[in-house]
Amino acid sequence: MVILGIDPGLARVGYGVIAVEEPEPWRPGLVQPRPGSQQLLDCGIIRTDPGRSEGERMVEIAADLRRLIRIWRPDLAAVEKFFFYRSSTTIAVVQARGVVLMTLARFGIPLVEYPPMQIKLALAGHGHAEKAEVLAAVMRELELSDPPRPDDAADALAVALTGWFQR
Fold it and tell me: Per the residue annotation, which of 60, 64, 141, 152 is the catalytic one?
């Protein structure tokens, strides 16, 4: 199974793509079932041009996301739910998130959504985990020696792993 994790934003949309393998079912004679495995396939950001209008930036997000979907053909998408802040960019970020959801729906990709607290709980064991704790869990689960960069890509991998753990 391939899972696409998305950390929505207007300037940068983080994405992370993982391949996951179901654990073997227990059969008599097996002492312990083999655990499932997760593998990093790709991660990065969709960066939009700040000199363009919001509408043009939304088009950039949709086009780049379509390209990623065509390359990786995800079986599931996991998207971070927007946590409301009081800032001037709140509406633009919510609109970008809407473009992400619409693009995923156009491809018929099943979608799960998680608020930041649930992602932290799934990866670090408590909903108030610091960013460093979540990053350490992502690195451990994907057996990475170096942290994924930039932070938006690491966050998207955390969302993708949450989609796998919460299935």
Answer: 152
Helix (H, G, I), strand (E, B) or coil at 49: coil
The alpha-carbon radius of gyration of the chain (Å, integer) is 16
- Cα separation, 27 vs 19, in Å, equals 25
- Closest to 42 measured CA to CA, from 156, 163, 167: 156
For the chain, list the domains and their CATH numbers.
Answer: 2-165 (3.30.420.10)
- Quickly tell me which residue has 């649930």 as its tokens: 118
Whether this model's pTM surpasses 0.70? yes
* Rounded Cα gap, residues 48 and 59, in angstroms: 9
Is 7 an annotated catalytic residue? yes
- 152 noted as active-site residue: yes
Helices 151-165 and 116-124 pack at an angle, to 10 degrees, of 70
Dump pLDDT digits (tens) for 5-22.
Answer: 999 999 999 999 999 987
80 is catalytic: yes
